[in-house]
Write a structure and sequence with these properties.
Layout (H helix, E strand, L loop, with lengths): L1 H19 L19 E7 L7 H17 L3 E14 L7 E6 L12 H10 L5 E5 L8 H4 L8 E5 L17 E6 L1 H15 L6 E8 L3 H17 L4 E8 L10 H13 L4 E5 L2 H10 L5 E5 L12 E6 L1 H15 L4 E5 L6 E4 L4 H17 L17 H23 L1
Parallel strand pairs: 1-2, 1-4, 4-5, 5-6, 6-12, 7-8, 7-9, 9-10, 10-11
Antiparallel strand pairs: 2-3, 11-13
Helix pairs in contact: 2-9, 5-6, 5-10, 7-8
Length: 411
């Protein structure tokens, strides 16, 4: 009897040791994926800090660190881009250059994005390529043409509801486009501004990259709509760093700094920066102590005026984890997905008076998610906003022949 008991105990210990070292039986700290499941090599290309705030990049990097630890069937390799430069030549022969670091290599690799594409795609070493960045959506056509690489899955992240370049069918099976509803970001920012800033400035300015930029338009329209919903007695001005994509100022930090200082001198007590990272930093540096600045995706404070800079930011860690949880469970999903307020991925940063902020966020949730209010997606031009003059000129141009004919008849 004792001999049998001893055998049972020894067998139990051996079984326990086997279970504790086998992730296919119990989940380990590396995740729940089976050891028999093929390892997916994932290349993560992170856009330059010129476009994204450092907090945003750290949030995305943190997310992939968690993915790497959670799922033992994903092998993540990061390629942060930097030193963005734009060589202006007539379309379509313009040149855009990036350089990158391979963070898993012992030495820093410095080369351009075209060479990076040959490493990531043409060698076939990666089953998935994750491109984080609005700037990577389509200007690098040779790099992101997913139709040329049908055996590789592509995830385009944070594209502001724009589709990346591709040739072939409308929705390739190897492409997933992940966006955030920018109108929700802008509306949250505008509603929080009216709820927390007191006394509210009589003059409000909004700055976009260039007229026609879809991201700027959505953000400004929603911010403007939220402001006008509460305050109809204020002076609103909409300004742009440049008047077109092919200009040079829409990515010019010094231009943003100069414009912000000028707006403050003109008495604008609140500036909404619907801009990329470097331009947003220019706005923050350009104002003094008399102007509030509200941004999106830029979790920063002003050194000499920490109470004057607020932002609405995204929970990238939560979103990326949910994407890979779905991928791990049911495989790659293509087409497009847009995260909105109802997904609980937007949150205010640096706003004072948490009681008011929490109450306002609950009201915004009720308005958008429960009541489905219509958030403006296009800018409302008033007498005091740039663009009204353009519209008036166009209308006058078309009606001029009518008035001329009418005058001749009267003669």
């Amino acid at each position: 009897m004792r001999f049998q008991l001893k055998k049972i105990i020894i067998s139990s210990i051996l079984l326990f040791c086997f279970i504790s070292t086998n992730s296919s039986v119990f989940a380990s700290n590396q995740g729940t994926a089976s050891v028999n499941q093929a390892v997916q090599k994932v290349a993560v290309i992170i856009d330059t800090p010129g476009y994204y705030d450092s907090y945003f990049i750290e949030d995305v990097t943190n997310a992939f660190g968690i993915v790497n630890q959670t799922y033992n069937n994903f092998d993540i390799e990061l390629f942060p881009l930097y030193n963005y430069s734009f060589e202006y030549t007539p379309y379509p022969n313009y040149t855009i250059n990036y350089y990158y670091d391979n963070t898993t290599s012992n030495e820093t690799i410095q080369t351009n994005l075209t060479d990076l594409s040959s490493i990531l795609l043409e060698t076939g070493n990666y089953e998935m390529v994750f491109l984080m960045g609005y700037g990577l959506r389509g200007v690098h056509k040779d790099f992101v043409n997913v139709s040329q690489y049908p055996d590789t899955d592509f995830i385009f992240y944070d594209l502001s509801n724009e589709l990346p370049y591709h040739s072939g069918p409308p929705s390739p099976d190897n492409r997933l486009v992940v966006s955030f509803d920018e109108t929700h970001l802008g509306y949250i920012a505008g509603t929080l501004a009216t709820a927390t800033i007191s006394p509210f400035p009589q003059r409000v300015a909004m700055i976009g990259s260039y007229e026609g930029d879809l991201r700027s338009t959505r953000l400004i329209a929603a911010f403007q709509g939220a402001i006008l919903r509460e305050r109809t007695d204020i002076d609103i001005k909409i300004a742009y760093l440049d008047d077109g994509f092919w200009g040079l100022n829409w990515r010019n930090k010094d231009k943003a700094k100069e414009l912000a200082g000028k707006l403050e001198d003109e008495g604008y007590g609140l500036i909404f920066a619907a801009l990329q990272n470097n331009n947003t930093l220019g706005v923050l540096e350009g104002v003094g102590t008399n102007t509030f600045v509200i941004t999106v995706d830029s979790n920063r404070t002003l050194l000499n005026k920490p109470n004057l800079a607020q932002s609405v930011v995204k929970n990238n860690t939560k979103v990326i984890l949910s994407l890979f949880e779905t991928y791990n469970r049911s495989g790659f999903e293509h087409e497009a997905v847009t995260f909105q307020l109802g997904d609980n991925v937007f949150y205010p940063s640096n706003f004072d008076n948490n009681g008011v902020v929490n109450k306002t966020m609950a009201e915004i949730y009720t308005d958008i998610v429960d009541s489905s209010i219509q958030i403006p997606t296009d800018i409302r031009y008033a007498l005091n906003t740039p663009g009204f003059q353009i519209i008036s000129t166009i209308v006058g141009f078309f009606f001029l022949p009518f008035f001329v004919r009418k005058k001749k008849k009267g003669e």
